[in-house]
């Protein structure tokens, strides 16, 4: 098992695919939960290939069961805010030595 904090993960390059994002408000087969809604409504967007796979998987669920999407796309600024909040909470609870150094 490799943890997300493992340096082998952090060294992996991140490359934008440029794939089109779909607003889940337009996809009736999937349920969208507004709890993580942001002011720009980015939370409701997913890559088209992910939407295709989720819709296919949804059709395979027993009748009456549904996927509930809570958050899709997360802008970099929001991701940074979440990260800062979690690292701050970890430092407060466990001390600064609990935080990764890089």
Could you explain the architecture of this structure?
The chain is α+β, with helices and mostly antiparallel strands and 102 residues long. It has three helices and four strands. It has helices spanning 7-10, 48-60, 76-94, and strands at residues 21-23, 31-32, 45-47, 68-69. The chain is extended, with a radius of gyration of 17 Å. The model has no long low-confidence stretch (mean pLDDT 84).
Report the total helices: 3
Largest sheet, spatial ordering of strands: 1-3
Task: State the total count of DSSP E strands.
Answer: 4
Task: Report the structural category.
Answer: alpha+beta
| Radius of gyration, CA atoms, in whole angstroms | 17 Å
Overall residue-averaged pLDDT value: 84
Largest sheet: 2 strands, antiparallel
Into which percentage range does the β-strand content fall?
Answer: 5-15%
Regions with little confidence, pLDDT below 50 for 5+ residues? none
Q: What is shown here, in short?
A:
The protein is α+β, with helices and mostly antiparallel strands. The chain has helices at 7-10, 48-60, 76-94, and strands at 21-23, 31-32, 45-47, 68-69. It starts with 6 loop residues before the first helix and ends in an 8-residue tail after the last helix.
